[in-house]
Predict the structure.
Amino acid sequence: MSAPSSFFANRVAVIATMHHKEQAIAPLVESALGVKTLVPTDFNTDAFGTFTRETKRPADQLMTARLKAEAAMKLTGTTLAIASEGSFGPHPQIPFVACNRELVVLCDHQHQLEIVGEVLSNETNFQSQTVRSAQEALAFAQSIGFPEHGVVVMQASQAEPQTAIAKGITTEADLVQAVNLALDQSLALEPALQGKVHLETDMRALYNPTRMNAIAQATQDLLAKISQPCPHCHYPGFTIVQRRPGLPCNLCGAATLLTLSVLYRCQHCQFQQEQPFPDSVQFADPARCFYCNP
């Protein structure tokens, strides 16, 4: 029986990035899978969308990562690629908290496999602010971890700003210069926008160590899924495709929304297997029950 990692050993995996994501991905996958990694030259991932919104993402987060991987394989002539895609916004379960959802996708044409690692982290400095002076800009920068984390200076706008004056700012002198330039340019805008500048955290991986750490976590999740072989055909990536609610209340026995079982499925042979009580808990706290705690 082959280990899941043997599907990839001694192969070349192209990492579809221009923003140094290989720093987070390459050491982990090379060690775990025995691959050699390659970063393509002249590969413009900005064509697949920019955080500063000059270029819209062509599809949803997962499909965009797939498109990056396919483009990198086509460019390099390889059959194995890894691509990541991040998104930022309000946490789906915790009010008023920002989060980073990071996907790392492995696409293998040789074995017709796609395995996706994921992390949803509230450890992010995703922020923006409108300022009126270089002093306010410096205060914002310090709040997001400057200069280790970069800053973007943009023209203020009534809608979502889409005109970047400067990106990847990591020195105080460059920040002051860009803000003063943007303030001067604002005088040509409508009166409500004059004297205002939009700042935001640069969320590109090479300017954001916090995000780079999330990419590493998503890569670790990817490797954990690869290490799970199908019990039937032994292909890697025997992963959860569905969570089924219904864990019974410990007091009244009524079904709750907590997970009762999970369904694993192999994308190669379609074998599937249900596992009850995946969280090692057989009953729900009555506080999570609609009947005991309406």
